[in-house]
Specification:
336 residues; Arc Repressor Mutant, subunit A; nine-stranded mixed sheet
């Protein structure tokens, strides 16, 4: 469709826009300035776009489209390099097998899709799934025991590449025959005395503490409660009449259970893929881009403009987040 567009066009135009002029770009690219002018004009005419305006002194200023071009051209050229790196690694036999991890709170369908995408690229490469908590999997990725892992945020580590993929709303899980199930959404006050099933505090120590803090901010006090180490266990406790639970929206439910959103808050579970910045299978960055294309847009755009309140995982530097602004939406991130 766009056979006239070649990678050199993107490299040339990116340099022109970043250096804000043809002369500086020609010097950096070691080519003639008239050649750059011809390439830039042909690209813009073929694509029917205007990427820059000429200013005095031979300088140029990117248009709004030009600013978008800078980011997209970098992505395209980065993808080119990642594809070539992956092909070289495969040819050298450097991707013999892979071990991918996943935490219990992550959508298992997302994890399976990622593993299947890798099999499409390398059908003969065995994929070894493993499971654990965010902090545990992060340590294994850093040590090289695990090649990449799906975790729930927050997480910070200087050696890890953290690719946020999805944000799913936290909703209330309750029995279908509960009187409050007749409501389209619940108020935070409805949680008082009813929210009594939580993810195990030792599996989520920082997130557990932050969740209790957020609940207190909305006037909900949690005293005695049951805990579980897996979303299925939480559903079993709810089904058994032990109270409500907060779970990821969209999770497969027992037929006796239902979910309701909480009015007035925006708490989410944020999913990311992590891998070592240097020591990772060269197929992983390509898989991330392929996976992003398959994700529904709403899953990635939810609460992007909301106030983000997050806690740090056990691998962070221990600093506490700043106090949120009162009466503004809150993003609740959990670590798995």
């Amino acid at each position: 469709m766009y056979e006239w567009a070649e990678l050199r066009h993107f490299r040339y135009l990116l340099t022109i826009l970043e250096r804000q002029g043809f002369r500086a770009a020609a010097e950096e690219l070691r080519t003639a300035q008239p050649n750059l002018s011809v390439q830039a004009r042909q690209f813009q005419e073929n694509a029917s776009v205007r990427l820059f305006r000429k200013m005095k002194g031979g300088r140029i200023r990117p248009t709004e489209t030009g600013l978008a071009f800078i980011a997209l051209a970098k992505l395209l050229l980065e993808t080119r390099d990642e594809v070539i790196n992956a092909l070289i690694a495969i040819e050298r036999g450097e991707v013999g097998s892979v071990r991918f991890g996943c935490t219990p709170l992550v959508d298992q369908g997302l994890f399976r899709t990622f593993c299947e995408l890798h099999k499409e690229i390398l059908p003969v490469c065995p994929v070894r799934p493993t499971h654990g908590d965010t902090a545990h999997l992060a340590e294994e990725v850093v040590s090289g025991t695990v090649d990449a892992a799906f975790v729930t945020l927050p997480l910070r580590h200087p050696d890890l590449r953290i690719e946020e993929l999805r944000r799913d709303r936290l909703v209330v899980c309750l029995r279908r025959d509960d009187p409050l199930a007749a409501k389209a959404s619940l108020q935070t006050s409805d949680l008082q005395g009813n929210l009594a099933v939580l993810y195990h505090p030792q599996r989520h120590p920082d997130a557990h503490e932050r969740l209790l803090e957020l609940l207190r901010d909305t006037g909900v006090q949690i005293e005695e409660y049951s805990w579980a180490s897996h979303p299925s266990e939480m559903q079993t406790l709810v089904k058994g009449g032990h109270g409500f639970a907060l779970i990821r929206e969209g999770i497969t439910l027992d037929e006796e259970l239902t979910t309701r959103p909480i009015a007035g808050v925006d708490w989410t579970v944020d999913t990311a893929l992590i891998y070592h910045k240097v020591r990772h299978p060269k197929t992983v960055p390509i898989l991330v881009k392929r996976l992003r294309k398959q994700l529904p847009q709403h899953g990635r755009e939810t609460v992007l403009n909301k106030v983000s309140i997050s806690i740090q995982a056990s691998t962070a530097n221990g600093k506490r987040p700043s106090q949120r602004v009162k009466d503004e939406p809150v993003q609740m991130t959990l670590i798995g």
